[in-house]
UniProtKB/TrEMBL annotation:
Protein name listed in UniProt: Phosphatidate cytidylyltransferase, mitochondrial
Keyword Transcription: no
UniProt pathway: Lipid metabolism; Phospholipid metabolism; CDP-diacylglycerol biosynthesis; CDP-diacylglycerol from sn-glycerol 3-phosphate: step 3/3
Keyword terms: Lipid biosynthesis, Lipid metabolism, Magnesium, Membrane, Mitochondrion, Mitochondrion inner membrane, Nucleotidyltransferase, Phospholipid biosynthesis, Phospholipid metabolism, Transferase
This protein's record includes keyword Lipid metabolism: yes
Length: 239
């Protein structure tokens, strides 16, 4: 009935700041309810939110809606997730954003304003008639792209340089502290590849841990319900 976990605060902070596992950091990119907090995780998580916004902007086209931005942020932690292939609702991201739009705004509107002040984003004069969600235009030039890319975790920047190793979090001294990308397309490809590989490993590990922790019968029932729900959305789409 309730999903919960136990984690050392040091491990939580490491994942938030480096996307080392991209599991807890992915969850904290979405609205959550914090019950107990000894390290002011909300403050630490602002770094995570900025990196999520930067990665999403690199993956989005020049023109997008506010809903598009939150949907892309929400989808980051599902890229490469093996469970999305057979055991998740295909509309899960949209439902999360639709049901938590205002909390998303509270989390990311300050960052959007910062990007507007820096000239990376600007607001369009056109607004959707029904949804009334602001349209944004982003600067897709090399300078703005590198500004966004340089704020991402080192594991993504090192992927671009071909020296990334999944078992290492150390930054080799011969790698520049700031990676440069020639275009937005190259930056987006690096983000997409790095996150898919990281999420694939993390989701497989969590699926195995869930099976061991809950036991075969409980896990089978849970998986059956998830698969049934996922199948129903696909059948509705088909018919």
């Amino acid at each position: 009935r309730i999903k919960y976990g136990v984690v050392a605060m040091k491990d939580l902070a490491t994942d938030i700041l480096t996307w080392d596992q991209f599991y807890l950091s992915g969850r904290l990119q979405k609205p959550v309810r914090v019950l107990v907090d000894n390290w002011d995780i909300r403050m630490v998580n602002t770094v995570n939110l900025k990196m999520a916004a930067a990665a999403s902007l690199l993956l989005l086209p020049k023109e997008f809606t506010e809903h598009d931005l939150y949907a892309k942020i929400c989808s980051l932690s599902y890229m490469g997730d093996i469970r999305m292939l057979f055991a998740e609702d295909k509309y899960k991201v949209k439902k999360i954003v639709d049901g938590s739009f205002q909390p998303f705004q509270l989390m990311y509107r300050p960052l959007i304003q910062d990007y507007i002040s820096e000239g990376i984003l600007k607001m369009s004069d056109y607004r959707q008639q029904k949804a009334f969600k602001q349209i944004y235009l982003q600067d897709c030039g090399v300078s703005a792209t590198n500004e966004l890319f340089s704020s991402l975790p080192r594991m993504i920047q090192r992927r671009l340089q071909g020296r990334f190793t999944s078992n290492s979090t150390e930054i080799p001294t011969h790698i520049p502290t700031r990676a440069l990308v020639p275009s937005k397309e190259v930056a987006a490809a690096s983000v997409r590849t790095a996150l898919r590989r990281r999420v694939m490993v993390s989701s497989a590990r969590q699926a195995a841990c869930g099976l061991l922790a809950s036991g075969g019968l409980v896990a089978a029932r849970y998986l059956g319900k998830k698969m049934s729900k996922a199948l129903s959305t696909r059948c509705l789409t088909f018919f």
